[in-house]
Design goal:
This protein is an alpha+beta fold. It has eight helices and twelve strands. Helices cover about 35% and strands about 20% of the residues. The protein has a six-stranded antiparallel sheet, sandwiched between helices. A two-stranded antiparallel ribbon has the order 2-3. The protein is globular. The two termini are about 30 Å apart. The model is unreliable at about 1-50 (pLDDT under 50).
Length: about 300
Amino acid sequence: VKLLFVKKNKILLTILCILGIVELTLVGCTKTNPKEDNHHKEKITVHKEHSAPAKQEMATEINSYLKDKGIDFSRISLAIFDLNEDIDYAWNADKNVVAASTYKVPLAMLWYDKINQGENSHDATLEVTPEDSQEGASSLADGQYDYPLSDLLELAITQSDNTAAHCLYRNLGSYQDFKEQATKYSKRSFNEDFYQDNNFTAHYMEDCIHYLYDHKDDYQELIGFMKEATPGQYLDTQVQISMPQKYGAVDNVVNAVGYVEAKQPYAIVVFTEGVDDAENVIGDINAICYKYFNN
């Protein structure tokens, strides 16, 4: 399993350590053309090399933690992005995985874009139909009726309401249409599998959270809902800072995405499948990151 550490403006590629079966590579880089990169084989440019030692320690500690817990590295996708210095730290981050309800973040972002651009009013209503009724707890009754757009967005994020989310993406055309529209939050290219079902990559979600952070003024309500949704859980389990995040859980998949406003703010995406005690593992990984980004 290779861990990548990405940064801008000067060539640097260093094999930092080999830990057990895990080859750890931290690379400071940026893509000259992000659309062409799916395998981290691009030339690498770097700046601010003084940041590397701390991130090397962070990477080593995460490696040690996962190894000590006996976690199969193939069952985790991870992407961490230093929001100040454009450093990307990741593994399995271009692997298509089940995102579960984390997809509701870019879904909500598309609707806030429509509101901000005047295409829809915050006070508008959408028609809920019997087709929208989905499995899982929902505050929405079965049937056909109009419901406030703002309330649908709140339910989709704070309660992870599947019926509300279905109504939101159906009104964008379809789930496929939603995914195609939501690629605007990333400059990466994606293979055909990305557009199927609930498949996403950790790198896509990292880019999405990065965009959310960079345009916070446009998404203040959404960020508030993300803070309100699951304080003290998932990414926030150990750090307990009521950070904006969105979890996703279905079958043996447990995921979380969000950002932390530490001394060095960072975005974090952790996708897991078949990992025991996954919620606490997600929280522990973020706690390790928080220690290094908050020093």
